[in-house]
UniProtKB/TrEMBL annotation, chain A:
Keywords: Magnesium, Prenyltransferase, Repeat, Transferase. This is Protein farnesyltransferase/geranylgeranyltransferase type-1 subunit alpha. One of its GO terms (molecular function) is protein farnesyltransferase activity. It comes from Handroanthus impetiginosus. Belongs to the protein prenyltransferase subunit alpha family. InterPro entries: Prenyl_trans_a. Its cofactor is Mg(2+). Essential subunit of both the farnesyltransferase and the geranylgeranyltransferase complex. Contributes to the transfer of a farnesyl or geranylgeranyl moiety from farnesyl or geranylgeranyl diphosphate to a cysteine at the fourth position from the C-terminus of several proteins having the C-terminal sequence Cys-aliphatic-aliphatic-X. It catalyses: L-cysteinyl-[protein] + (2E,6E)-farnesyl diphosphate = S-(2E,6E)-farnesyl-L-cysteinyl-[protein] + diphosphate; geranylgeranyl diphosphate + L-cysteinyl-[protein] = S-geranylgeranyl-L-cysteinyl-[protein] + diphosphate. It comes from the Eukaryota. Its EC number is 2.5.1.58, 2.5.1.59.
TrEMBL record, chain B:
One of its GO terms (molecular function) is protein farnesyltransferase activity. The lineage of its organism: Eukaryota, Viridiplantae, Streptophyta, Embryophyta, Tracheophyta. It catalyses: L-cysteinyl-[protein] + (2E,6E)-farnesyl diphosphate = S-(2E,6E)-farnesyl-L-cysteinyl-[protein] + diphosphate. This is Protein farnesyltransferase subunit beta. It comes from Handroanthus impetiginosus. Keywords: Metal-binding, Prenyltransferase, Repeat, Transferase, Zinc. It is an enzyme of class 2 (transferase).
Amino acid sequence: MIGEEEEEDARIPISQRPEWADVRPVPQDDGPNPVVPIAYTDEFSETMDYFRAVYLADERSPRALQLTKEAIFLNSGNYTVWQFRRLILEALNADLCAELNFVNQIARENSKNYQIWHHRRWVAEKLGSEVASKELEFTKEIFSQDAKNYHAWSHRQWVLQALGGWEDELAFCDELLEDDIFNNSAWNQRYFVVTRSPLLGGLDAMRDSEVAYAVKAILAKPENESPWRYLRGLYKNDIKSLVNDPRVASVCLDVLTDKRNLVHALNMLLDLLCNDYQPSNEMKDAVDGVAPESNPPGTNLVERVCSVLIMVDPIRANYWEWRKSTVCVQD
Amino acid sequence: MADMRATKSQEEQWMVQNQVFRIYDLVYRLPPHAQSVNFELRRENHIEYLTKSLKQLGPSFSVLDANRPWLCYWIMHSIALLGDCVDDELENDTIDFLQRCQDPNGGYGGGPGQMPHLATTYAAINTLITVGGHRSLSSINRKKLYAFLLRMKDSSGGFRMHDGGEVDVRACYTAISVASVLNILDERLIQNVGDYIVSCQTYEGGIAGEPGSEAHGGYTFCGLAAMVLINEVNRLDLPGLINWLVFRQGVECGFQGRTNKLVDGCYSFWQGGVAAIVQRLHLMVNEQLGLPNTFKYDCKTESDDDSSNSDGESYSEGASSPLNDICEPIQEGQSNASPPTESNNIGYNFIKGPIGMRPIFNSMALQQYILLCSQEEAGFRDKPGKRRDHYHTCYVLSGLSVCHYSNTKEADSPPLPGHVMGPYSNLLEPVHPLYNIVLDRYHDAYKFFARS
Ligand SMILES: [Zn+2]
C-alpha cells in the first residue's frame, strides 16, 4: 500500500516525460485581468496546458488519450476534454470495455456530474445490448449509495430503452420500494416500467394490479405523497375512470375516517369532486367529521374540503384558497 | 413489522426537519431586538464575499474550471439583486474575460479556449446583460450565436448542450432563453422544441430532464419558462403542474426539488420562479380549468380591499382572449425601434401587464427559511450543516426577490412592508422570472437588441 501511495506522489511532470518532449504547452488565454481567476495547482495548469496543445493540434494519439485521462481526474466536469476523448477513442478504435471501467472509477468518486453519464451512454451505445446487464448492475451499485441519483436513473431508463433488460425491472422496483416506500425515484421508475415495458402489455393491462399496489402503500403510510401521485398518474388523461374506480374514493374515505394525515386524501377527493364524482353520504359524513365548526354541513362539499385543507395544511393555505375560489365560479 | 421501521427517506427528513425547527425555536425565543437581528439580510457581508470571489478563487475551484461564466453570473447577478454593482474596472474585466470565452464560431465556453456550451452561453449572456452598457451588450456576436444555436438543434426538436453533448430540458431552456433575450428567436429554433418539453411533463405534474425521468424543480422551471417564451405554454397541464409545485413547499418552510426529497435553498428560485411565472398565466389556467376568462384572483392591496368580493372573486373588464396577456403588440413609445418579430416580444409582454393571480405558495414561510436557515454570515447555503457557495447564494437571493414581489400588482412596484420579512431594508431588486435577470437590466437589453 505504501508503495502505491509513493507512486502516486511521485508524479513526473509532463515537461520531464520524454514522450512529450516535442510538444509545446499552450497556456490558458486568460488575459491580463481575468475575473473569477482560479489559483490552479502546478499539476492542474501543466496538464491543461498540454491538453490545449494536443486539442488545438487535433492530435488523436495514444498519448493524447492518456492525457485526457489525467485531465479528467483533475476536473471531471470539463466537457471539452471528454468530447475530445471520444474523438480519440473513435480514431484509435480503442477497447471500449476498458473505457467503461475507467468511467466506473470516475463515477464512484463523483456520481453527480453530467459529463460522466453522457460519456457512459456513448460508450454503452457503441458496445450494444451485450452490456445491458452490466449497465443495469452498475446503476444498481450507485443506488446502493444514493437511491435517488437523478443521473443514474436517467441512465438506467436509457439502457432499458436502447439496450433492453426489462425482464426483472418491476421486481427491481419492488425491491427498492420495499426498502424505502418513500423513494419517489423508485415510484417514478415503476411508472416508467408499467407504461413502457414491452413485456407487460402497457398501462391498460397493468392498471388494475397497480391501483391495488398503490392503495396498499397509501393505507400503510397515508402521509406518503408518492403513492397518491402514482395512483393519480395511473389515470392520467382519463380522469373519468379515476372517478369511476370505487377503490379511489374508498381509499380517501378510509384515510379520512382515520382522521390523521388528511392532506393527500383531501387533495384527491377535491380532484374527484371537481370531476363530477357523486359523494356518498358516508363520504360527506367523513368530511364533516374533520371539518371546522365554522363551516356548517349545509355548505357545498368542495368548499368544505377546501376549508379543512386551509386549516390542516396552512403552508398551502394560499393554494387552497385559490382552489376554493375557482370552484365558486364553476358552480 | 416492517412498517414500524423508519426508512432512509424518513430518517433523513426527520433529521433535517428537527434541525430546522430547532433554529426557528431558538430565534423565536429570543427577546425582540435580538430576534429581529436574525431576520436581517446581511447585505454588506454578502457583497464582500461575492466581490472577493470575482477577484480570486482558491485551487479547490478547479472543479468549476469549465463553469467560469456561471461563476460570473452567480456573482454578478447576486450583486445586482442586492442593489449594488462592481466598479467600472471589474465590469470591464468581466466583459474582456467573457470575450475570451466566446467561440469564433458562436456561443461561449466554460473558459477561454473551451468548446461553446449552451449552459455557459446562457450564463455569459445573462452576465453581460447584468453588467449592461453598450460595450458589454455589443460584445455579443449574435449572428454567430444564432448559427451555434441552430447547430445544437437536435432532430427530436430539443437542443444538445454542445457538439456531441446531451439533449435535455436544460439545453432547451438555455437555448430559447438566450435567443429570446437577444431578439434572435425564430421559427427554425422553435420548431418541435415544445413537443420535446411536453413529453417531459410527468404523471406527477412537474417536468423532468428527459422523457420518463422524475419531475424535478430545476427542469420544471426550465421547461415552463421555455414553453412561455415560445408561446406554447397552454400545451402543458398547468393545474397539474401547479398542484405538484405547491406540494414541494414543506414543513421546513423552504422548497424541495422532488417529492420526498430534502429541502434545499436553491429551489427557492427554481420552484419559487415557477410560482412567479404561474401568477402571470392566470388566463391560460382559467381556460384549462374551464373557467370563464373573466375569472380573476388577483392581488389585493389595502386600497382596493373594499372593491373586490370577500371570497376573492371579482370580474375584470376587457380580458377577452386567453392569450391577451402575452400576445399584445409592442406599445408605442417603448422604443423607437421597428417592432421585433412576434416571438421576441413574448418575454417583454409577459412582464409588462399586471400580475393576474395572487401567490399560490407561502412567501413568508419561504423568506423565513431563507433568512434563518440558508443565510450564513456571508453567502447562502442549501440547508443547515452545508457550506455556502456561489450557486446557492445566487438562487437563494433570486428566490428571495421572487418572494418580495409576489404580492405586488406590477412587476416592479414596491411591495408593502408586510410582505417583506424582516426590516424593509431587506428588499431586493425585482427579476424577470423567465430569464432570471434583474428587471431594469433586462429592459435596457430589450431596448438595445430591439434596435439592432
Ligand atoms: Zn441546492
